[in-house]
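Form 12-C: Joint structure prediction
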Amino acid sequence: MIELPSYREQAPDVAAHHAQIRERPVVMTVGSVGRVFDSPQGPITALSNIEFEVHQREFISVLGPSGCGKSTLIRIVAGLESCSDGAVLIDGHPVVGPGPDRGMVFQSYTLFPWLTVLRNVMFGPAMKGVPRARAERQALEWLRVVGLAKFAEHYPNQLSGGMKQRVAIARALANEPRILLMDEPFGALDAQTRCNMQAHLLQICANVDVTVMFITHDLDEAIYLSDRIVVLGAHPGRVLEIIEVPVPRPRSVGQFLSGPFLATKARLEELIHGQAEPEETLAAQ
Amino acid sequence: MSGTDVSVFAPVKAGARRRQRKPLLSVRNPLSTRAHAAAGVLAFVVPLVLWCLLSYVPLLWHPLVLVEDPGDSSVPGQYAYIAAGQRVDRAVFEGRNAELAAARRPLARGERANPIFLPAPHEVASAFYSAFTSPPERTGDFWLHESLWHSCTIIFLGFLYSMLLGIPIGLLCGTFSLFSRLIEPFVDFVRYMPAPVFGALAVAVLGLGDEPKITIIFIGTFFQAVLVIANTTRSVDFSLIQAAQTLGANHRQLLTRVVVPAALPALYRDMRILLGWAWTYLVVAELIGEKSGISAFLYQQQRYRHFENVYAGIVMIGMIGLITDQLLAFLGQYLFPWESGKPSLLRALRSLRRPSATAAVTTSSPSVSS
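Section 2 - Result
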């Protein structure tokens, strides 16, 4: 067993980075959000008192075991579902439904198959009534950001899974959202592609002024990408801890075996796997 | 090194090639191109060969005898009624010959034949031509091509009206639960009433012209169309709609920019099937009120016992149906390029007009989007 530093220990530059983020204005507030589903067996609490804030240009991950309600949470933020308690505020305004200020990348491929890649990216601006020429120019720009300008005239079914998700990211970014919501966007990809996509996403976030809320169940992915990690526990879904990632930026695959990375991972393991198995909780009830 | 490679792997390669030949029976696996084409041809050739065998091989069925010479008709007997050109049961023919033999008169002559309602392929084939060239038997009747054209107009108009109304209503039902609940229960109720029962009503209300016929086609397809189109619309991937919502699409944009284009290829397939329904209602529609179109032609030819013309007419309906469907399927590939991988209709037409421009269009760099 190797000796690991504490995951709370931050190198001076990392501490400065986190302090800088805390200084920035709050983009999104998740204010004591709760969600109760009705079921034949009585009400089930999927989320209970979820509370955190996301600052401008922050990359925040929500990590948790399956069934902890992390997808429900991001769908509430997106406005695709409503919450039973509390509220989500974007720049101080409560969320009442889906809107272009919260772009979303889904786990399933949701590109419009009848539109070319370029037209897919132009979809959001077109809905807003942006003139076609300008929308097209901007869409090409976003395609360049995700490295797919060459495929502008292709249809989505001509692309690989990773390329589809890159177009989906470009499509969401083309709307210039206040926050980019990503619901396990790389979950359906193979390991190699997922690794490339993570590196790609890091690069995009370094170059583009964007705030990201990222849902995942992959510990490495959460540490590799995020500034902070909101760890959810299951039954009911609740915040176990919010961790400031002590791994310095720029991130690279080489850091996977660094002290701060492993320390964070050990803590995440402890939080998630220390939890009772869902079956046991059910049996206890 | 390469030499050993060849010697070691050559037999394996040959085996692999043998294994690569696709088996003819394989669960949900496509056939090889050759087998695909061959089976398609066989689908038509096998029934045709069976028909030829039945028609041309005398001993295979031929339950009747076509009398050529009835012999001496003055000989009395139970079967004395047979006459030249008649088709009689073999038992009758043999009975008559027994009577003639007993009277020591010359025997009747005849050939074994099939019933008149099973004409031979060559008779139907020639009817294909002669049905078009032979004038109507009664003045005021229509030529075959006129009848066919009339049938096509009835189908087209009935189908057009039912789609003009059915598609929007089906789309609304499939998109908004309110419309679904308001419309579908009643449509489901009417759907089970057979369209022909409205025939008398349609004639009473609309008179003897084409209107009641178009109405029957309309009734036969409209109510089915609403339900089928609503279901197709409902099967549009909900995550596409949600994605559009997060991109800022409002209700109207969701319907016109997402639901409609997403459902369109499946709707097109639905319409091809519904067009087949329209053809099945055609015969009923054309026989109510004043008989018209291809059904009137078939009805009359049947009364004149010109069964080769009846067959020719039936096959013609089948061919028109098959050809329209194949044309629509072909057209569909260009209407929905994202499903077929073919160029869009516009681009295909443009490249037809200027063959030299095709290469330029397909290889143009995607970033140059005009």
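Section 3 - Comments
The longest helix of chain A spans residues 191-207. The CA atoms of residues 161 and 189 of chain A lie 7 Å apart.
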